[in-house]
Amino acid sequence: MPIRLWNLAETASFLNLEEKTVRTLVTAGELPCVPQGNRLLFDPEEVDAWYSHQLIRHLAPPHAPEAPPRPLLAYCRLETMAPALPGRTKPAILKELTALAENAGLLYDPAEFLEALRKREELSSTAMAEGIALVHPLTRDEYTCQEPFLAVAHSQTPVFFGEPSGIPTDLFFLLCSPDPQEHLQLLAQLCQLATHKTFLPALRQATTPQEMMAAFSLLP
pTM here? Predict the structure, then answer.
């Protein structure tokens, strides 16, 4: 089924920006757009990927999403905490992260979910300079996952995951919500925690899922 394009108002609402700001981004060639005559139309997948890239690169325009409706810990389970992920390559890490969610009974179609992760990474890496990656699927709908979730994994060996400066990644957050706004809220909050002085070190030092869960208690 072809994707229904968003109009200017729908895109501005999704990005939590004024319409004139969206127009400015389009004129500057920053925001992908599908012009049709005098109308500006937008591919939802491209808009979603563009904005998540802005957040991850700390380039988000004004009015970033508010905090998610629940604390981050409420999106976690012991089954989705992995203190010693064995993968040594990007494809292996993506498979192992998908397996975490699958084994917790959170996915409808694991193979489709994995492909959506790969497609998102093909657009631009979700790796950040802080040695973390905020992995998420390119497309999401009500059949993507059973419920919104956050999985956290620490790899035994740092992996080159595509961070632009070549910095290896050892801490992976896998997030998914079928609701676009909740997804962006989760992504924005995790981006804000990228330089947290105690949270990330605690996750890296954890040796059990329980210790990884406990690290969330360090958050404000």
Answer: 0.86
